[in-house]
Amino acid sequence: MKRLLTTLLVVISLGLCAVCIVQWQREDRLRGHIQDLVKRLEAENALRIEAERKVREYEKEIARLTELRAEVEARLVEVSREYKDLSADSVARGITIAIYMREVMQMQRGLEATQLAFGKGAEAIKSHNSVVTTQNSAMEKQNELLKQLVEERNDAISKLNARTREFNDLVEKYNKLAKSR
């Protein structure tokens, strides 16, 4: 009986060893599976962190581009407003110059002696007006030409005033002669 018990004990021990070996193999497979899952989880976390970093970068870039766009639009509105103001000012100056030219030409018709002196000024005004209209995009040049034009106009008006005084003196002398007869 002792032998039977010993044999039975050995068989049970060997069975337990077999069960332990099977459990160890199963545990090893489970540990390997868990390690694979941990590696996949770490990889997914790294990808998630990288995606979140890219999202923050993209948000910053979008904010920068939005701000840049707003600045460009504001500058465009400002430049458009300045252009409209300058265009309106240029048109107003052109109209003023045209009015002055018309007045001077009306005075010119009345005074024959002034025609020669003022003819050169009118030609200069016309040439300067054509230069001003062709160089409308260069506002600095336009301002310089308008200043020059005003100086010529002033010279022409001062010449016209001098001729008018001479004409008035001549008319007074004529009136005196006419009264004395």
Helices, strands, pairings?
Layout (H helix, E strand, L loop, with lengths): L1 H109 L1 H23 L4 H42 L1
Helix pairs in contact: 1-2, 1-3, 2-3
Report the uncertain regions: 112-118
**Broad shape:** rod-shaped
What is the string of helix and strand elements? HHH
Structural class label: mainly alpha
Number of helices: 3
Distance between the terminal alpha carbons, to the nearest Å? Answer: 185 Å
What fraction, in percent, of the residue positions are helical? over 70%
Largest sheet: none
Number of strands: 0
Query: What amount of the residues lies in strands?
Result: under 5%
Write down the overall mean pLDDT. Answer: 78
Summarize the structure.
The chain has 181 residues and is mostly helical. The chain contains three helices and no strands.
Description:
The protein has 181 residues and is mostly helical. It is built from 3 helices and no strands. Helix 1 runs antiparallel to helix 2, helix 1 runs parallel beside helix 3 and helix 2 packs antiparallel against helix 3. The longest helix is centred in the N-terminal third of the chain and has 109 residues. It starts with a helix and ends with a helix.
Key phrases:
181 residues, mainly alpha, rod-shaped
